[in-house]
Amino acid sequence: MRRLFLALAAALLVVYIGLAFLNLWLLGRRLHEDAVRLRQEVAQLEIEGRRLGAELAYYATDAGVEELAREQLGLARPGETLVLFVREGEAARREP
Fold this sequence. Notes:
Blueprint: H1 2-59, H2 62-71, H3 90-94
């Protein structure tokens, strides 16, 4: 009887250790996948950061400031005539 108990205990211990290793392996695999995904996300964010840095550098120039003033604020240089095209229906929506 004692041998049967020891064999059963050993079998349960082997199963427990096997499940523990399986759990650790699955955790490692999930962490590896997360690391790969995060590296890709970091690479994309670095590209976006460089693009935004270049855009910021452009808008710090006179040409960039002028572009923003013309396109975003609707400004014109002295002596220029500003022509705005209004689509049909837009004028009615803008009037109070």
